[in-house]
Amino acid sequence: MNLGLTDKVALVAAASRGLGRAIAAELAAEGAAVVMCARDERAITDAARKIAAESGATVVPVRADVAERAGVERVTAAALDRFGRVDVLVTNAGGPPAGPFEAHDAAAWESAFRLTLQSAVELARAVLPGMKARRWGRIINVTSISVKQPVDNLILSNSLRAAVTGFARTLATEVAPHGITVNNILPGYTRTERLVALAQAASAREGIALEAAYARWESQIPMGRLGEPRELAALAAFLASERASYITAQSIAVDGGWIRSLY
Ligand code: NAD
After folding, report:
1. CATH code for the domain in which residue 87 is found
2. pLDDT < 50 stretches in the chain
């Protein structure tokens, strides 16, 4: 299938490793030029160099913290300076810390807001005028299975990702007449460093072996295994493509069947 991405410019946030990196690699493999950011200059530069070497695409690394407005400005300005446009925006960031309600003070909620909701809103704000002018755009938010079935002990993530979903659903309606789609990808338990950190937190909290934490997740997944980042990245590439022109306002899980709801 020709995804029609060879003349497109993609901006992938939070992409030095994990899901963001896999999405950047998939879009580059499909021929898109990619601007990718993370907070660590060396990590994002290394990741970009490897993706460029593997794909032959133009890949531009930018050091930027998307939880800060200045970081969003930095990465979007870098993309617009270099290419003059962003056709595909993938919003992504690290996950907010785990823990129950009592574990998080007001400052923790504000940080989670900036990391999860503000980053998605401000990235969209920066690229939408150009997408509207060109009457073509794809916005893809990486959220979580927790928006359909909240995950225990992740109260910050469960709350803020629901907010991103409300934002995306409303924005999708507003920008649909301009040829812009807005969709969310819901990762299930996918083998990244974030998941290792969650397994370590569960192991320390409950006094169980690390393997037991993984086994518990796997037992809840009909496919009986964790997901791989490239399995999620494949959906991102499709949603970014010309072919996905009539798919908008959707939240699509890549979770091996973990979510038990009908919708
Ligand atoms: P990860 O921790 O492995 O990678 C996160 C990436 O984001 C890294 O490159 C990191 O440098 C970058 N990053 C983090 N905070 C940033 C910031 N403020 N500004 C710029 N870059 C930043 O995480 P992951 O597993 O790839 O997850 C990506 C997102 O998907 C997270 O929000 C996570 O909570 C969510 N998610 C992951 C899973 C999973 O199983 N992996 C499941 C559900 C949801």
Report:
1. 3.40.50.720
2. none
Q: Whose CA is nearest to atom 15 of ligand 1?
A: 94
Sign of the C-alpha dihedral computed for residues 31, 35, 38 and 40 taken in this order = positive
Q: Return the residue whose CA atom lies nearest to atom 1 of ligand 1.
A: 194
Asked, for residue 105, whether it belongs to a domain, the answer is: yes
- How far is Cα 194 from Cα 151, in angstroms, rounded to an integer? 15
Q: Is 192 in the pocket of ligand 1 (CB under 6 A)?
A: yes
- Write the pLDDT tens digit of every residue in 163-205: 999 999 999 999 999 999 999 999 999 999 989 988 998 899 8
**CB 61 near ligand 1, within 6 Å:** no
Radius of gyration of the chain (CA): 18
Our answer on whether the CB atom of 17 is closer than 6 Å to any ligand 1 atom is yes
Q: What is the pLDDT of residues 113-133, one digit of tens each?
A: 999 999 999 999 999 999 999
| Domain count along the chain | 1
What is the pTM assigned to this prediction?
0.97
| Distance of CA 92 from the midpoint of ligand 1 (Å) | 7
